[in-house]
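Backbone geometry:

***
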Amino acid sequence: MKVKGVGWLGSPTDRFDDMVHFAVDVLELKPRINESDFAVFDLADGDTYEIFGPRAIADAHQFMRCPTAGFLVDDVAAARREMETKGVLFIGPVYRSSGGYSWSHFFAPDGHVYEITSRS
């Protein structure tokens, strides 16, 4: 497994509107998705930044209590198998989107959740 970068960043917050305004007005990002409690921003290099409000956290991202990074790999399933042989505990399956993204969440030694992700 080779980590190629940090390809995804998720930011849970109880100040969702303030964070979306920050992303749009200060960072000058354009949302691809902007729902009542979930926003997705595609960055110029292909990376993704997502903001989760309280309802999104409660509904589908309960384990996210601080910003979460996604380490970019070529093959999420293969990287997960390799990491599991080294004792890493994963949460749920390998997820795949219709847009070709794959990801899988895991606990790191610091107790926080991270993910491995690919854009294949």
Observations:
- Strands lie at 5-12, 31-34, 38-42, 48-52, 68-72, 89-96, 102-107, 113-118.
- The chain has a mean pLDDT of 90.
- The domain at 5-118 is CATH 3.10.180.10 (2,3-Dihydroxybiphenyl 1,2-Dioxygenase; domain 1).
